[in-house]
Amino acid sequence: MLIAGLNKLSLIDYPGKLAAVVFTQGCSFRCSFCHNPDLIPILPKKLTQNWPSPTEVLAFLQSRVGKLEGVVITGGEPTLQADLLDFIKQVKSLGFLLKLDSYGYNPDKLQVLLASKLIDYVAMDIKHTPSKYSLAVGVPVNVERIKQSVEIIRQSGVDYEFRTTCVPTIHEESDFLEIANWLAGSKRYFLQAYRDQITLDPELPKRTKGKTLNLDLIRQQIADRFEFVGVRE
To answer: Which of 56, 126, 210, 224 is most open to solvent, judged by the fewest CB atoms within 10 Å of its CB?
Structure first.
């Protein structure tokens, strides 16, 4: 496991739970609006000085048993880690609830993880409509893999949400009607506000300056497609 960071306490990353957040290194997407660009490249650990080891993270979690309720594994993209399942087993052995954040491009790995019955909540990013997915993620993608992950999650029996970071100039309000029709019947869908403080593409804030998407209006327009639709500012 290449662990690039540890947030020792979060009130927002695991819905309704006090949680620690473990950040993994590496992602195969290149979303221009990524707010964790330092986590994208998979770098040899010898080039870094401050990454916590899995042993150090597990020792911290051991010290927080009875104080924290959950652990969130995010990224980067956790499913790129070959030993992710082993790490999850060790976290679960301490008694924590476990939430996994994923971009959904490794459906076979996701299937194995969810079948393990060790994951309590999964959040999958939906970057765009199927026809515009490559536009959003910055690399060519086989969108059938994304669709497969959506169905794996919906059929898994694991609690879940889908979520989209809504970026002016990349998304239009009409795109969310198409996304809602695609994901119709899903449990939860969140519209996440785009923030321009840190982005992979340093030019993106210039292009989005002064442009907005009305997330409350979009939520109202698509609310009937889901059990719940929320807005995260």
So the answer is: 210
Give the pLDDT confidence of 97-124 residue by residue, as tens digits.
999 999 999 999 999 999 999 999 999 9
Q: How many CB atoms lie within 10 A of CB 151?
A: 10
pLDDT at 44: 60
Amino acid identity, residue 112?
V
Q: Is the pLDDT of residue 43 over 70?
A: no
The Cα 9–Cα 7 span in angstroms is 6
Which tokens belong to 26?
């590496």
Distance CA(127)–CA(124), nearest Å, equals: 9
Model pTM score: 0.95
Strand ordering across the sheet containing 19-24: 3-10, 19-24, 70-74, 97-102, 121-125, 159-166, 188-193, 228-232
Neighbours of 178 (CB within 10 A): 16
* DSSP result, the chain: --EEEEEEEESSSSTTS-EEEEEEP--S---TT-S-GGGSS---GGG-S-PPPHHHHHHHHHHTBTTB-EEEEESS-GGG-TTHHHHHHHHHHTT-EEEEEE-S--HHHHHHHHHTT--SEEEEE--S-GGGHHHHHSS---HHHHHHHHHHHHHS-SEEEEEEEE-BTTB-HHHHHHHHHHHTT-SEEEEEE---SS-SSTTHHHHHTT----HHHHHHHHGGGSSEEEEE-
d(CA 116, CA 141): 27
pLDDT in tens, 193-225: 999 999 999 999 999 999 999 999 999 999 999
